[in-house]
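To the structural biology subgroup,

Please find below the input and predicted structure for Heavy metal response regulator transcription factor, which we are adding to the shared reference set this quarter. The sequence is reproduced verbatim from the submission form. If anyone notices a discrepancy with their own records, reply to this email rather than editing the shared folder directly, so we keep one authoritative version.
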Amino acid sequence: MYFLVVEDEERAAAQLQKGLSEVSVVSDVCSNGLDAVALALKKEYDLIILDLMLPGIDGFEVLKRIRAAGVATPVIVLTARDSVTDRVTGLRSGADDYLVKPFSFAELIARIQALLRRGQALQHDELRVADLVVNFFAHRATRAGKHLDLTPKEFSLLSLMIRRQGEVLSRARIAERIWNLGFDSNMKIVDVKIGNLRAKVDGPHEKKLIHTVRGVGYVLEDRELAGE
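Predicted structure (tokenized):
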């Protein structure tokens, strides 16, 4: 999963990003309302966590602008502003949920799960392809009933691929989503990490699920590796 965290307090933003990484969520962080709008319009996020008190423009205006531009990404407002008026304004401006600081990280994760489930976004906590099963919030993957010992980045990579099963993912898209690398970066890291993941997911099994599409990228799907 790929989130945008909009938070101008550096320590709070770092804690959020670290906590999200522990449940296999890759996140961009920005501290300015105008930058938040630009990123939300430019990139394909699965969810946005938005503070209200921001430099540039406040969170209410961020919501109005991205919704007016047609961005339907789920948004959770995470703020110290706890008045009923603020809550109503946030929800009317386009927020999907509103959580007041200080908050429990466990509650935030539960709200994220519920929100993504309601939006059918990413559509389930658990997905299966053939005998491969990935449970995102339990941070667990199995193949033929056996636990796969994956690093956090490998789990994030597998999560991205199984959520986009059947869709060919370019190296550039994978690099941006998993490592936040730009298009001018060295894409060899993608090939190396895909090789490591393939060894763990497909290595001991006759049926291969991770396939190379030459000159394009990689795809995870239930088919034979014919011609590759």
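Summary notes: The longest helix spans residues 105-118. The mean pLDDT is 87.

Regards,
Lab coordination
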